[in-house]
Design brief:
single chain; elongated; 9 strands; mainly alpha; about 5% strand; Rossmann fold; two-stranded antiparallel ribbon; 2 domains
Length: about 650
């Protein structure tokens, strides 16, 4: 297969937007589509090489995997190894444990499955996972497990049948992608069956499925159109774009157009893509892609922020320098020594290195992140992993969460509750759920009912999150059925509030006020850079002061200030937990004198934290409101009445 410099130019067109998107540099809001460009290129090149081998009767599955290992393993395991060393000195135990799991997954090319599994509410924070980007490599390698044999089997029998089989696989994969992007977007994004069609587009180009273009004008027009499609995706998409699905057609078809036209036409776009600098960037694209993300993530771990624009640009430059060093001293030497007789040795060496990283990843996981690396003041793990923790039980793993009468009720889709007109509704996400135990204990004569779903604020005017089935069920139920059909003493709203939700919060309060005597909005709790128990356990004077600083303290304080100002024009009562817990940049971190932190992760309250906040802050303020006095009296009379009725029956 002859070398095509324009394809290296297309690689540059893929990697640069990805890196700049991750660096949060305008206007590359859709730069993530660079991965889709890589998929098409990979499908085209790998299939072209395999077809040449099959036609020349030199095809060997061992030879194929020998080439893949030489191409993929050296730079990949260099980055994984350097990331492990860096993580050893930087990452706190809980993050190191999560990181170790990703090392294990990367070693066997299952990163996409790992990050799909962690995509839920309690999953690892993707932006702090140094090996997140290895998911795309996993998709490719999973695709190439069986594809070479499939290609060889059908190509030797009938090229037309091969084209038909590839087209069927492409169609099925695309249908799955479109179906799941609305119903399970995490699966659609990460998993190979929903991504295979993008590689298959390149495969079909390589087997001659698309006829050659005739005429220079047509070639110029198609290549220009391909560039436009890619540009629209890069500059027009953003993180809210449902993806992949139909949206992925733009970068995929755009890339296919550039590859196909460039095969036999000397167009203007092809000449631009063959420019020396773009070709140079394309040659470095694999290492550039591998190095940039860990560098960005470790900087964020160390500083708690993405950095100013100048810092982010410096990180991009550092990534490029590392990419050149990797290409010059790692990639090229390993690919250059490709004697056919050494294929088995390469496979065995690749397997041995993978096994080493499997062991390292497993050890990090089994030791819970090697906490012995630090001098811990106490063991934070029980607070962070205790599955019996009452608050975590309330918050995890159900379509909708309801707590009634001190008992956790998992009622499925309907979330129907018995309530009376003196009930108090507690609505919101997990930041509403973590208040329930404390409020129930501090105000036993108040009839609290919790309606909560992870990641879903009970706010009108916001699109419900399509990746949370419970959101789509619970929020409409609250506003269309529960509130209109009931008459409640009070409604409490709590959540992990964001700046963009404040204006909708005003509308929500006005709506709820029609059905409740009182509306109370509880402001945000402090948020930390890492899980609070770990930060406290690691605290040794100035060394760990950075762990105590609030993550975006100014942002949380500003959200609190704006919420207070916005709700002042409504009938709602606003309670600022931030103002009660924090002063001059320092916040209360322990619930009592028994070394129990207020929060068990970066924000969620522990059971004692919930009880402390309810007893010391919320109960005194709520008890002064007439609606809560009436609710307490009503529940007391219900209890007394029930007791007298039972005595009469006896």
């Amino acid at each position: 297969m002859r070398y095509r410099p324009d394809i290296d130019g297309i690689r540059a067109l893929a990697v640069v937007p990805v890196v700049l998107f991750h660096a949060h540099i305008w206007p590359f809001s859709g730069g993530f589509v660079g991965v889709d460009i890589f998929f098409v290129i990979s499908g085209y090149l790998i299939t072209s090489i395999l077809v040449n081998d099959i036609r020349s009767e030199t095809f060997s599955i061992i030879k194929f995997y020998d080439r893949r290992i030489r191409r993929i393993f050296p730079a990949l395991f260099l980055v994984v190894g350097l990331s492990f060393v860096t993580a050893w000195f930087i990452l706190l135990p809980s993050y190191f444990e999560d990181f170790s799991e990703t090392v294990f997954a990367a070693a066997i090319f299952l990163s996409n499955v790992q990050f799909w599994r962690e995509a839920g509410y309690f999953g690892a924070d993707a932006e702090l996972a140094p090996l997140l980007h290895t998911w795309s490599l996993a998709v490719e390698e999973q695709f190439y497990v069986f594809f070479p044999l499939l290609l060889a089997f059908f190509h030797r029998r009938s090229v037309s049948k091969l084209k038909f089989v590839l087209l069927v696989i492409l169609t099925l994969s695309f249908v799955l992608s479109v179906y799941f992007v609305e119903r399970a977007p995490d699966a659609a994004f990460y998993l190979t069956p929903m991504r295979a069609w993008e590689l298959m587009v390149g495969c079909l180009l390589a087997v001659g499925f698309v006829p050659a273009l005739r005429g220079r004008k047509m070639a110029e027009a198609v290549s220009a159109l391909g560039l436009i499609l890619i540009g629209v995706a890069i500059f027009g998409f953003d993180s809210s774009t449902p993806f992949p699905g139909f949206a992925a057609l733009l970068p995929v078809l755009g890339t296919a157009a550039l590859i196909h036209v460039g095969e036999g036409n000397d167009t203007f776009v092809r000449r631009v893509l063959s420019a020396r600098f773009l070709v140079f960037v394309g040659l470095l694209s694999y290492s550039f892609y591998l190095f940039h993300w860990p560098i960005f993530v470790f900087y964020k771990h160390m500083t708690g922020s993405d950095g100013a624009l100048s810092v982010r640009l410096l990180l991009v430059i550092l990534s490029f320098v590392c990419a050149w060093l990797s290409w010059r001293f790692v990639e090229r030497p390993f690919r250059a020594h490709g004697e056919s007789g050494s294929a088995w040795r390469v496979l065995l060496a690749g397997g041995a290195v993978s096994t080493v990283f499997l062991g390292v990843g497993l050890a990090g996981n089994l030791t819970h992140g090697w906490p012995a690396r630090f001098d811990l003041r106490f063991d934070p793990r029980p607070l962070m992993t205790n599955e019996e923790n009452e608050i975590r039980m309330v918050m995890e793993g159900v379509t909708c969460r309801v707590v009634e009468g001190g008992r956790i009720v998992l009622t499925g889709a309907s979330c129907d509750l018995r309530q009376n007109e003196r009930s108090v509704l507690l609505l919101g996400d997990s930041h509403a759920a973590h208040l329930y135990p404390g409020l129930s204990d501090a105000m036993p004569w108040t009839d609290f009912h919790l309606y909560s779903a992870g990641g879903c604020r009970s706010i009108q005017g916001l699109n419900t999150r399509t990746d949370k089935e419970s959101c789509g069920i619970l929020v409409p139920f609250i506003f269309n059925e529960l509130l209109p059909k009931g008459k409640f003493s009070a409604v409490i709203l709590s959540g992990r509030w964001e700046m963009s939700e404040i204006q909708h919060l005003q509308e929500t309060v006005t709506y709820i006020r029609r059905y409740a005597s009182e509306v109370v909005v509880i402001g945000p709790v402090p948020r930390y850079k890492t899980d609070l128990p770990e930060a406290l356990a690691l605290w040794q004077g100035e060394y760990s002061r950075r762990f105590f600083d609030l993550n975006g303290e100014a942002e949380v304080a500003e959200i609190d200030r704006r919420m207070s100002a916005a709700l002042a024009s409504t009938d709602a009562v606003y309670i600022s937990l931030f103002a009660e817990l924090c002063s001059d940049g320092f916040c209360r971190t322990f619930a009592d004198n028994n070394m129990v932190p207020l929060q068990w992760d970066d924000a969620h309250l522990t059971l004692l934290g919930s009880e402390y906040i309810a007893d010391k802050i919320l109960a005194p303020k709520l008890s002064e409101l007439d609606a809560f006095k009436e609710a307490g009296i009503a529940k007391y009379l219900d209890v007394v009445g029930s007791g007298e009725a039972q005595r009469e029956m006896k």
